[in-house]
Amino acid sequence: GNKKEMPLCERTYACLCGLTIGRDYNAAINIKKEAIRLLVLA
Fold first, then answer.
1. Rounded CA gap, 22 and 36, in Å?
2. Which end of the chain, N or C, is less surrounded by CB atoms within 10 Å?
3. What is the mean pLDDT of the chain?
């Protein structure tokens, strides 16, 4: 994944691949992926 610094007033995340989704939804996806990664390691 790509990390992109953005101000809190910017509510939409636009990926280099062309995907555009809400900032909060994108954050939720990233948190879920990290949780799954950590569970697999446990």
1. 21
2. C
3. 89
Q: What is the rounded distance in angstroms from the CA atom of residue 28 to the CA atom of residue 13?
A: 12
Q: Phi/psi at 40 (nearest 5 deg)?
A: -65, -35
Q: What is the mean pLDDT of residues 19-29?
A: 92
The pLDDT tens digits for 6-15 are 888 999 988 8
Provide the token pair at 17. 């691949």
How is the chain split into domains, by residue range?
12-41
CB atoms inside a 10 Å sphere around CB 13: 19
Residue 39, token pair as written in the block: 């569970």
pTM for this structure? 0.70
Q: Please say whether the beta carbons of 2 and 16 come within 8 A.
A: yes
